[in-house]
């Protein structure tokens, strides 16, 4: 497979703040990939670097094997939609969709019309007077109907309610099956999107802390609960992701347990629970709440 996104030793500083710190990873062409992390972790900055909206401090960011900065040919193959999308004054929803074909060569008007009905968007209403959810729906429509070869979705669906988000996930999967392309989702709603993702890149304080196949991650950690002494004895010599204790009861999250290890844990009187993708990422990034909304940078 061909790498459609390549990041090598990428660093971006804003004064004394390092938003992206020596990041290196690549994403192969095709698939739905997750760019995950806590608030202010650097997700949006990374996407802006990959779409030529920011200049790198050092290192390289490439799409389609090229530097995206002032690269019109490469950027015409890209769609980048974020929750804080800004529209021209006076624009209504219908103006956004009317202008979209100017920017996206593969724009599908019929699909856009279908999405408008699916999300019940009032196209005659000015964008600035729409609700957050309605503006989110416009972003989702543009992101999906663009059919861009490389689509970055930086939480434009965060303003949708749970039912509308479920509809978005279903429509994304349905359309991806018929029109394969490369989609990069940035989201804090990790459990909701977990089953969509084929690869996961997690950024924390600007550094890449996880870069792995999503399926491998889903089964990579197990939480054991039991008497503190039994838990600690079992965890000795194993890779500990997280641990907690309350009185005489303790829990520990371990990486890389085999089926034989789990049987041994059960024989030791420990209760084993598979760790969700969200729980694993929260543990690895030191987060306490993975459902906070992502800030712009």
Throw out a few tags for this protein.
single chain, alpha/beta, Rossmann fold, Alpha-Beta Plaits, four-stranded antiparallel β-sheet, 11 helices, disordered C terminus
Number of strands: 13
Spatial order of strands in the largest sheet: 5-6-7-3-8-9
Count of DSSP-assigned helices:
11
* Radius of gyration, whole Å: 21 Å
CATH topology of the largest domain, by name, is Rossmann fold
Q: Please indicate the percent range of residues in DSSP E strands (runs of 2 or more).
A: 25-35%
CA(first)-CA(last) distance:
31 Å
Overall residue-averaged pLDDT value: 90
Helix share of residues? 25-40%
Shape: globular
Class derived from helix and strand content: alpha/beta
Q: List the secondary-structure elements in sequence, H or E.
A: EEEHEHEHHHEHEHEEHEHEEHEH
Number of domains: 2
Low-pLDDT segments, ≥5 res:
288-297
Q: At the first level of CATH, what is the class of the largest domain?
A: Alpha Beta
The CATH superfamily label of the largest domain reads P-loop containing nucleotide triphosphate hydrolases
Architecture per CATH nomenclature, i.e. the level-2 architecture of the largest domain: 3-Layer(aba) Sandwich
Largest sheet: 6 strands, mixed
Concise account of the structure shown:
With 297 residues, the protein is of the alpha/beta class.
Structure description:
The chain has 297 residues and is an alpha/beta fold. It has two domains: 3-214, P-loop containing nucleotide triphosphate hydrolases (Rossmann fold, 3-Layer(aba) Sandwich), CATH 3.40.50; 220-274, 2-Layer Sandwich (Alpha-Beta Plaits). It has helices spanning 43-50, 72-75, 93-103, 109-119, 132-145, 162-178, 190-193, 214-218, 228-235, 259-267, 277-285, and strands spanning 3-14, 17-28, 31-36, 58-63, 78-82, 150-154, 182-187, 199-204, 207-213, 221-227, 239-246, 249-255, 271-274. The strands form three sheets. It has a six-stranded mixed beta sheet with strand order 5-6-7-3-8-9, with helices on both faces. A four-stranded antiparallel beta sheet has the order 11-12-10-13, with helices on both faces. Strands 2-1-4 form a three-stranded antiparallel beta sheet, covered by helices on one side. A hairpin with a 2-residue loop joins strand 1 (3-14) and strand 2. Helix 4 (109-119) packs antiparallel against helix 5 (132-145). The protein starts with a strand and ends in a 12-residue tail after the last helix.
């Amino acid at each position: 497979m061909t790498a459609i996104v390549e990041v090598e030793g990428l660093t971006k500083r804003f004064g004394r703040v390092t938003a992206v710190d020596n990041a290196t990873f690549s994403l192969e062409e095709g698939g739905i990939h997750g760019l995950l992390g806590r608030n202010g972790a650097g997700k949006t900055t990374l996407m802006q670097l990959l779409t030529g909206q920011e200049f790198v401090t050092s290192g390289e960011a490439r799409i389609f094997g090229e530097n995206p900065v002032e690269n019109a040919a490469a950027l015409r193959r890209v769609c980048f939609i974020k929750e804080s999308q800004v529209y021209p004054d006076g624009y209504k929803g219908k103006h956004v969709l009317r202008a979209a074909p100017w920017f996206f060569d593969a724009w599908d008007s019929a699909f856009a019309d279908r999405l408008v009905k699916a999300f019940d968007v009032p196209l005659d209403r000015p964008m600035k007077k729409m609700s957050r959810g309605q503006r989110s729906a416009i972003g989702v429509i543009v992101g999906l109907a663009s059919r861009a070869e490389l689509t970055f979705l930086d939480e434009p669906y965060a303003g949708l309610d749970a039912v509308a988000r479920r509809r978005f996930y279903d429509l994304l999967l349905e359309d991806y099956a018929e029109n394969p392309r490369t989609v990069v989702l940035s989201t804090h709603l990790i459990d909701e999107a977990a089953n969509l993702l084929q690869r996961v890149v997690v950024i924390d304080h600007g550094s890449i802390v996880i870069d792995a196949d999503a399926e491998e991650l889903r089964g990579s950690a197990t939480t054991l609960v039991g008497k503190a002494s039994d838990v600690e004895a079992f965890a000795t010599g194993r890779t500990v992701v997280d641990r907690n204790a309350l009185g005489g009861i303790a829990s520990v999250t371990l990486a890389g347990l085999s089926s034989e290890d789990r049987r041994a844990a059960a024989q030791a009187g420990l209760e084993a629970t598979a760790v969700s993708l969200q729980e694993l990422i929260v543990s690895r990034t030191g987060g306490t709440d993975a459902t906070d909304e992502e800030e712009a940078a």
